[in-house]
Amino acid sequence: MKANCWMGRTTVEVREVPDPKILNSRDAIIRITASAICGSDLHLYNGYVPTMKKGDILGHEFMGEVVELGSEVRNLKIGDRVVVPFPISCGRCASCRAGLYSVCENSNPNAGMAEKLMGHSPSGIFGYSHMLGGYPGGQAQYARVPFADVGPVKVDDDLSDEQALFLSDILPTGWMGAEMCDIKPGDTIAVWGAGPVGQFAMASAFLMGAERVIAIDRFPYRLRRAERAGAETLDYEEVNVLEALRDMTAGRGPDACIDAVGMEAHHPVAVMHAYDRARQATRMETERPHALREAIMSCRNGGIVSVIGVYGGLLDKFPMGALMNRSLTLRAGQCHVQRYMEPLMGRIRNGDIDPTMVISHRMRLEDAPEGFAMFRDKQDDCNKIVLRP
Ligand code: NAD
Ligand code: ZN
Ligand code: ZN
């Protein structure tokens, strides 16, 4: 089959690779009909995650048709259309039973690698480095889906691929980002990063009763998208974000702040990779404002900072003093996607959310290298790319 493979820093290549096979009785093989490129893929593309190997198949947002099933998967049939959540989760461990699917205890065979960096291991993730399980991803014609008896959700014919695809990740992620803000009617929510994840966080914040949403980014086309969704906007290259947010909130600051930027921050602080001790590698460094630091510094006293932007390693210059002295709450996580898929599918059906709004480009799988470069550089008003294997 064809698959989009990581071949080194800023290099991906569509290659011929062996078809996946059923390895366990709870596996399914999916023939992929739609797959997407995510901001999280850019962390791998830009080389911020060191446990990638040449030839690793990328992609964690995908859906398709079931073509083969392990003996223990009884909830699916050959031919079913399914959308697959990006965290690989057993459904049975203490974390999964508590609804904390992205920290499943049974899905990362390389947990030791993750523990070195993070203390404990989160779940495995499709196409997301060996530290997170080394699972081949879904920017491919086929994928093996472990724990298929509990992960994938059936999609009926009334929903198109493009309506259902983002249930795999970015729609639930944006929703969880807003949910972690404990939004009360009348609240003002600020969102750093007006990418697809930020856009879904904004839409979710409004659905949860936020009165005002303030979007912060530097790309005019993305700020215009936020504006069309009802948000006020700040271009962080034009204004001092801390001062502007103060002015807009009677000096108090937003009730909650969402970081939908992560490591890809345009003005990153140092991200240190603990495992790179030999070189004490400082991948990114600058004194300019950083999204997470701004979110913490601008949040109102007693407010909530919700981090859905992805980080790895250690983050330097973290304003712990503000967090402690001003009674802030910090919440974070890879999305517990499985928790949100069914309820959000209901909201797509009843018209509360139209996930297709984020799509700007549709490409063939073969064009993934061009897609990665375009999405990374935000060329051609690139917002979200769907690949059709
Ligand atoms: P994206 O690259 O399309 O969007 C990121 C946006 O952040 C860009 O528009 C960029 O201009 C903006 N930005 C950069 N620096 C900024 C700054 N200092 N202040 C304000 N905005 C800034 O990516 P995306 O697909 O929208 O994903 C966003 C983040 O969400 C990524 O870190 C991704 O890894 C993460 N993510 C997390 C989860 C999860 O489960 N928690 C799931 C999916 C994606
Ligand atoms: Zn993603
Ligand atoms: Zn589990």
From TrEMBL:
<comment type="similarity">
    <text>Belongs to the zinc-containing alcohol dehydrogenase family.</text>
</comment>
<keyword id="KW-0862">Zinc</keyword>
<dbReference type="InterPro" id="IPR002328">
    <property type="entry name" value="ADH_Zn_CS"/>
</dbReference>
<protein>
    <submittedName>
        <fullName>Glutathione-dependent formaldehyde dehydrogenase</fullName>
    </submittedName>
</protein>
<feature type="domain" description="Alcohol dehydrogenase-like N-terminal">
    <location>
        <begin position="26"/>
        <end position="153"/>
    </location>
</feature>
<feature type="domain" description="Alcohol dehydrogenase-like C-terminal">
    <location>
        <begin position="196"/>
        <end position="265"/>
    </location>
</feature>
<dbReference type="InterPro" id="IPR011032">
    <property type="entry name" value="GroES-like_sf"/>
</dbReference>
<dbReference type="Pfam" id="PF08240">
    <property type="entry name" value="ADH_N"/>
</dbReference>
<keyword id="KW-0560">Oxidoreductase</keyword>
<keyword id="KW-0479">Metal-binding</keyword>
<dbReference type="GO" id="GO:0016491">
    <property type="term" value="F:oxidoreductase activity"/>
</dbReference>
<dbReference type="InterPro" id="IPR013149">
    <property type="entry name" value="ADH-like_C"/>
</dbReference>
<dbReference type="InterPro" id="IPR013154">
    <property type="entry name" value="ADH-like_N"/>
</dbReference>
<dbReference type="Pfam" id="PF00107">
    <property type="entry name" value="ADH_zinc_N"/>
</dbReference>
<dbReference type="InterPro" id="IPR036291">
    <property type="entry name" value="NAD(P)-bd_dom_sf"/>
</dbReference>
<dbReference type="GO" id="GO:0008270">
    <property type="term" value="F:zinc ion binding"/>
</dbReference>
